[in-house]
Amino acid sequence: MDKFATDLLATLQGGSKAPLLAKAFKLVRSAADQGDAEAQNNLGLMYFNGAGVPQDKPAALKWFRLAADQGHAKAQFNLGGIYFNGDGAPYDKAEALKWFRLAAAQGNVNAQFNLGVMYFNGDGAPYDKVEALKWYRLAAAQGDVNAQFSLGGMYFNGDGAPYDKVEALKWYRLAAAQGNVKAQFNLGVMYYNGDGAPEDKKEALKWYRLAAAQGEVNAQYSFGLIYFNGDGAPLDKTEAFKWFRLAADQGHAKAQFILAGMYFNGDGAPEDKKEALKWYLLAAAQGDANAQNNLGGMYYNGDGAPQNKKEALKWFRLAAAQGQVNSQYNLGVMYFIGDGAPQNQKEALKWFRLAADQWDTRAQYNLGIMYLNGDGAPKDKNEAVKWFRLAEQGNKEA
Questions:
Q1: C-alpha distance across the termini of the chain, in Å
Q2: What string of pLDDT tens digits covers the 398 residues of the chain?
Q3: 88, 106, 124 — which closes off a domain?
Q4: Packed helices 325-337 and 345-356: angle between N→C axes, nearest 10 degrees
Q5: Cα(109)–Cα(213) distance, rounded to whole angstroms?
Q6: Is residue 319 within 8 Å of residue 292, measured between CB atoms?
Q7: Which of 143, 148, 144, 93 is nearest to 119 (CA)?
Q8: Number of compact structural domains in the chain
Q9: Most buried residue, 25, 91, 194, 302, by CB count within 10 Å?
């Protein structure tokens, strides 16, 4: 809640300093009893954190209120936090708003940021992004890193502020310079794509690296892609593998999917289909349609997984329902010939049609055959010719 509390807690970590805290408590209590607002706030912190005295949140509330009633900004902020979180007092966001506003009016940067959040989200305050912008700007001008990041997002998206990517870049850079990992990642994206910043892949790499080194999962994934494709850095699949693995270990589905492919194909990783299966399953469980499709293929062909066409059908259906075109085509084949699914030409027609509408030339050709022969579809030579021509056109363009 306050630097004083942080310092006290750090001191408590050294057992030999505990007697000093007890002595400090007596001195602070004496000054607080005489009405010193700073001492009252600090006493509140000691009770709140159990520093030099047994933890007693009702006592903390009492001393914070005494200090706050004297206009002590940090105590007002601390009271706001207690009511906002319902930690030491009944959960009361209206009361939190009152105390945050009093503290913010005195320039308390943390209160200003909290007001920005409350107004932006309509959480304990009316939903009012103009008011949120005002408080974020005040906090950001004092160097609050989270307010700077929030302002960047508002200007980048035109959400509560004019759409202004130059202004977004300014605030993201200020936040990133203070180590804000999300701002560093966003800068990487902006420079990589030339979106709101000059396209500069060297600069993008710099910001991705900073964010990735702090464990930002999307930066780790993006960093991996840069090395995997050699786009913005030298092609280096060993380096790509390292960053994909870090992101995958944090549950990033796309990183898990790519990592699985690297193991499956022995591309930048030792060929290991058991490991590939593991990562495809993890990505597929998160709904990654491409991983679901590839699992279907592994089970269908018995390639890296036990052959199990019922399992293949399950994964193809999950992927196809998300629009994965290869799975839609594969389902069409399975239903058409009755291989791993009951033979059902109506169902085959449905899946071929969905794949064909996504310009899958195999599905377009199969539709042509079905309409030409009246096999699972009404016999219709004009419809057949249409699909044959689309397939031929697609093959020529490919």
A1: 61
A2: 445 544 544 544 444 466 777 888 888 899 999 999 999 999 999 999 998 899 999 999 999 999 999 999 999 999 999 999 999 999 999 999 999 999 999 999 999 999 999 999 999 999 999 999 999 999 999 999 999 999 999 999 999 999 999 999 999 999 999 999 999 999 999 999 999 999 999 999 999 999 999 999 999 999 999 999 999 999 999 999 999 999 999 999 999 999 999 999 999 999 999 999 999 999 999 999 999 999 999 999 999 999 999 999 999 999 999 999 999 999 999 999 999 999 999 999 999 999 999 999 999 999 999 999 999 999 999 999 999 999 999 887 75
A3: 106
A4: 160
A5: 28
A6: yes
A7: 93
A8: 2
A9: 25
CB–CB of 207/177 below 8 Å?
no
Does the residue 291 lie in any domain?
Answer: no
CATH of the domain at 30: 1.25.40.10
In a domain, 12, yes or no: yes
Q: What angle is formed at CA 252 by the lines to CA 246 and CA 256, rounded to 5 degrees?
A: 75
Distances from the Cα of 159 to the Cα of 73, 129, 155, 242, angstroms: 30, 8, 7, 36
Domain housing 378: 359-398
Cα–Cα distances (Å) from 110 to 16, 59, 121, 176, 292, in that order, read 33, 23, 17, 19, 45
Asked if residue 330 lies in contact with residue 363, where contact means CB atoms within 8 angstroms, the answer is no
**R_g (Cα) of the chain, nearest Å:** 30
Tell me, yes or no, whether 348 lies in a domain: no
Residues 6+ apart with CB under 8 A from 181: 210, 211, 214, 215, 216, 219
